Amino acid sequence: MKKIYVLDTNVLLQDPRAMFSFADNEIVIPAVVLEEIDSKKRYMDEIGRNARYVSRLLDSFREWGHLHQGIMLETGALFRVELNHSSLSKLQKQFTEITNDNRILAVALNLQEEENVSPHPRPVILVSKDALMRVKADALGLIAEDFLSDRVVGEHSHIYSGYHKLQVAPDIIKSYYANRRLPLQTSFPQQRFYPHQFLVMKDECNPSISAIGKVDTEGKNLEMLLADDDPMWGIRARNVQQKMAVELLLREDIPLVTMTGKAGTGKTLLALAAGLLQIEDLQTYKKLLVARPIVPLGKDIGYLPGEKEEKLRPWMQPIYDNLEYLFNTKRSGDLDKILAGMGSIQVEALTYIRGRSIPGQFIIIDEAQNLTKHEVKTILTRVGEGSKIVLMGDPEQIDHPYLDESNNGLTYVVEMFKDQKLAGHIRLEKGERSVLAQLAADLL
């Protein structure tokens, strides 16, 4: 049975091509949604970009017919802008205030009333990213759904982890150590492995015997890790996932590395230590570029005084904290003198990355879970020849209003690149910052 989908404004601001995700059903855009999109199109951020994209897309639809009468999309869906059914009389007892949300609810409710008396009634479904909007719709007897087509995985727990644990026969581990490699197709014929995926094999007869390896580029053999246990600028891997992360960070044949994990698992510190080692000691890259998205936690502090570096300092302080630890600075101002003298470390905001080409650099993007798909695409397309980029963050700590664990830019890259030869991923699980930090990450 075909359905009628009424789209909330936030669906189009999250995915400007959302109307192509509803197969051959009917898609209704209330007129008030156009007003809300118009009010957002002057924003100089991702929301403004999407508002402008939707405006241009709807304008192009006019070539196919009058939008208030309905046009057929390439997916077979009937798309129309609803100018009628806007009466608030059905809602006035429950929601007295005249708001844009209530006007959208009124359209959906009035459409449902009309369908209920038709010979072949169709379900009317309100689609919104706003949880309270869905709650209000449910209270009115409307079917309400979240927009899920922008998610690359169903749940956060299903996100690719970068490693796999297996119980194996003793002979497999012995063969692996003897030959320093293991043919995967003969040893595990029923399993599928991704390039640069890690395997943790445990002896099924004696769990204390184990082996760690990395799947090769072709996904056919398991190979020994190349990275040794020598410290990187005083930092050494403390657990098996950190050891896997070091392997990915130090390999030149893997230009894209993604790392996820809770606060305190060592993502930023490991990435900075690996970058400094390859820039200052090995001279594999010319410069270390560290950037973070400017997304506040809680209420924004507003405009900041000073030059660009002074304005950025509060946002970039987590990076400077880790650099102070790596350089073992004792007094305030010592780190600034060191960085000025080196000249090979650049701490930047992602605001200034558009239009750049960045060759021969080790690039670290922190808090990448606050990036949208479009923003992460913009960043990755800036990477020049001979550069390596590391995207890291915690998908459970998102400050962006329209993102969640399943549709943010970091998760998008992890899932889209997991079967690519140029990319590697690892999820860090054990906190190493302190016992209190690990307990807080687990309990809160």
From TrEMBL:
Q: Which GO terms describe its cellular component?
A: cytosol
Where does the PIN domain start and stop, copy by copy?
Answer: 3-135
Among InterPro entries, the record links this protein to: P-loop_NTPase, PhoH, PhoH2-like, PIN-like_dom_sf, PIN_dom
Output the Pfam families linked to this UniProt entry. PhoH, PIN_4
Q: Which domain of life is it from?
A: Bacteria
Q: Name one GO molecular function term.
A: ATP binding
Q: Which UniProt keywords apply?
A: ATP-binding, Nucleotide-binding
Which family does the record claim for this protein? In the N-terminal section; belongs to the PINc/VapC protein family.
Could you identify this protein by its name? PhoH family protein
